[in-house]
Write a structure and sequence with these properties.
A hairpin with a 2-residue loop joins β4 and β5. By secondary structure, this protein is of the alpha/beta class. Helix content is 34%, strand content 26%. It has a domain of 123 residues: P-loop containing nucleotide triphosphate hydrolases (Rossmann fold, 3-Layer(aba) Sandwich). It has a six-stranded mixed β-sheet with strand order 6-7-8-3-9-10, with helices on both faces.
Length: 242
């Protein structure tokens, strides 16, 4: 899918302004994600990506602007209310519970979505991440960093989200583990999952993302498909430090 013109809008943020106290971070952000679309949110550190994710997931209320998800306004709603609507985030840092086993994580967070057959059952998640199946009895603090990241993604999928947000999903991982995460994202894309991904590995995002949005100092400075981003490497050096 190279454009969103033929896809139904799942999430739309309009004219978002947000910040912390007197410090404004976002200035008139517009963002759209279509159903089944993979969107990459790019930019150097400190350009507003994390603040935008906080607005979308309800941990920060916007100063101005509107967020619609599935046709309903969610801007300023509490995180649990937004999660119940079908937005799941895999946060930077994973936040795995040290004393729960892999299997307990997946069963405790499972939340079937009313009106639809459960896609991501525990067995399906073990199929997506065979490494977790091998370690289903291990506690969270007995897993490697890569395994914890897999568990965090699987835990988010167990809620059967309509939109999965991945915040720096490959940060700090060994190259071989990063490739497993990229393979997972490719599988999720083939399954029609809508994904918003924040990551610095632009080259690996090109075959995965349908579109890319670049933030610079809290503003959208460029957006387009992978072919356009691949063709203009000046964008990489100007805005991404690649």
């Amino acid at each position: 899918m190279s454009t969103t013109t033929m896809t139904k809008t799942l999430l739309e943020a309009k004219s978002i302004e947000a910040g912390y106290g007197a410090s404004q971070v976002l200035f008139g952000i517009d963002l759209r994600i279509g159903a089944g679309e993979v969107l990459a949110l790019l930019g150097r550190n400190g350009m507003g990506k994390s603040t935008l994710l906080k607005v979308l997931t309800g941990t920060l209320s916007p100063m101005r602007g509107d967020v619609q998800f599935g046709g309903a306004a969610i801007g300023g709603h509490k995180p649990d209310a937004i999660a119940r609507r079908g937005v799941a985030i895999v946060p930077e840092g994973r936040h795995v519970f040290p004393n729960l086993s892999v299997d307990e994580h997946l069963r405790a967070f499972a939340r079937p979505r009313p009106g639809s057959a459960p896609r991501w059952t525990v067995d399906a998640l073990y199929g997506l991440f065979p490494r977790l199946a091998e370690r289903k009895a291990n506690a969270g603090n007995q897993l490697s960093g890569g395994e914890q990241q897999m568990l965090a993604i699987a835990r988010a999928l167990s809620t059967h989200p309509r939109l999965l947000i991945l915040d720096e999903a490959t940060e700090g991982l060994a190259p071989v583990i990063r490739e497993e995460i990229w393979h997972c994202i490719a599988t999720l894309k083939s399954e029609g999952e809508a994904i918003l991904v924040v990551d610095k590995y632009v080259q690996r995002l090109l075959p995965l993302a349908d579109r890319h949005v670049i933030l610079e100092r809290g503003r959208v400075v460029w957006q387009g498909d992978s072919a356009a981003l691949d063709a203009d490497r000046s964008l990489w050096t100007r805005y991404l430090g690649v």
